[in-house]
């Protein structure tokens, strides 16, 4: 894992304890906020824990709407972190119950956002630590590699596994993505529920965006 200094971990803690607010949910690409702040986006299968991870990072339970019902997040949702950066919650993919046209609409929107956003510093591609990479994830990785959007894989729900198991999945996942050009060569292990891995992920996001908590 990347070594973060104690100072970086502390600076990231301060950064993410600043006020976070919901900016807007966009259903159309024309509605996106002006690209005037660095952004990081959270992508992954429906129900993988994108909205929960955003809540965990900022320490707020109800900022992003999370739910056990897949397809909860249906727009591209923007959250502002005290004018320093934005966290972007994307609609999930692989959601079997939605109609084809609905799915296509979400996916086209997510894809358009990911491809064309000049201020997008990194995508966090979430994978359920119990399941590892699936075929639908591979498609998402292919699209990110093709668009040359820098992304890092983040395993979620590590609290559902026994100690050490998530690390084994992380090692296998890292091996599987080793030849992918746009992949960050580390896999993060997190639990939004218990907070595991969140200090390091905050530090990684602070580095990726260059956001200064003290400015
Ligand atoms: N045990 C555990 N459950 C989690 C964790 N993160 C999310 N969950 C649960 O997983 C379910 C889905 O979480 P969401 O955050 O809504 O998932 P999402 O990826 O935003 O889903 P969509 O918006 O449908 O794409 C919820 O019931 C969460 O409580 C975690 O770290 N540990
Ligand atoms: Mg969601």
TrEMBL record:
Ranges for domain EngB-type G: 36-211
Cross-referenced InterPro entries: G_ENGB_dom (IPR030393), GTP-bd (IPR006073), GTP-bd_ribosome_bio_YsxC (IPR019987), P-loop_NTPase (IPR027417)
Keyword Coiled coil: no
CDD domains, alphabetized: YihA_EngB
Names of required cofactors: Mg(2+)
Keyword match Metal-binding: yes
Keywords: Cell cycle, Cell division, GTP-binding, Magnesium, Metal-binding, Nucleotide-binding, Septation
Function: Necessary for normal cell division and for the maintenance of normal septation.
UniProt similarity note: Belongs to the TRAFAC class TrmE-Era-EngA-EngB-Septin-like GTPase superfamily. EngB GTPase family.
Protein name: Probable GTP-binding protein EngB
Species assigned in the record: Brevundimonas vitisensis
């Amino acid at each position: 894992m990347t070594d973060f200094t104690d100072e970086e971990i502390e600076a990231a803690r301060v950064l993410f304890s600043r006020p976070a607010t919901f900016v807007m949910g966009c259903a159309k690409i024309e509605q996106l906020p002006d690209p005037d702040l660095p952004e990081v986006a959270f992508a992954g299968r429906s129900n993988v824990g994108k909205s929960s991870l955003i809540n965990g990072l900022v320490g707020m339970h109800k900022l992003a709407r999370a739910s056990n019902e897949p397809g909860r997040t249906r727009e591209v949702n923007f959250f502002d972190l005290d004018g320093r950066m934005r966290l972007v919650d994307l609609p999930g993919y692989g959601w079997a119950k939605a109609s084809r046209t609905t799915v296509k609409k979400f996916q086209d929107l997510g894809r358009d956002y990911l491809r064309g956003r000049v201020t997008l510093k990194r995508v966090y591609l979430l994978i359920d630590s119990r399941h590892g990479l699936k075929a639908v994830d591979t498609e998402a990785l292919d699209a990110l590699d093709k668009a040359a959007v820098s992304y890092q894989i983040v395993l979620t729900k590590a609290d559902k596994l026994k100690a050490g198991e998530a690390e084994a999945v992380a090692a296998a996942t890292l091996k599987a993505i080793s030849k992918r050009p746009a992949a960050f060569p580390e896999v993060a292990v997190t639990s939004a529920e218990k907070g595991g891995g969140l200090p390091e992920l905050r530090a990684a996001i602070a580095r990726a965006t260059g956001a200064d908590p003290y400015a």
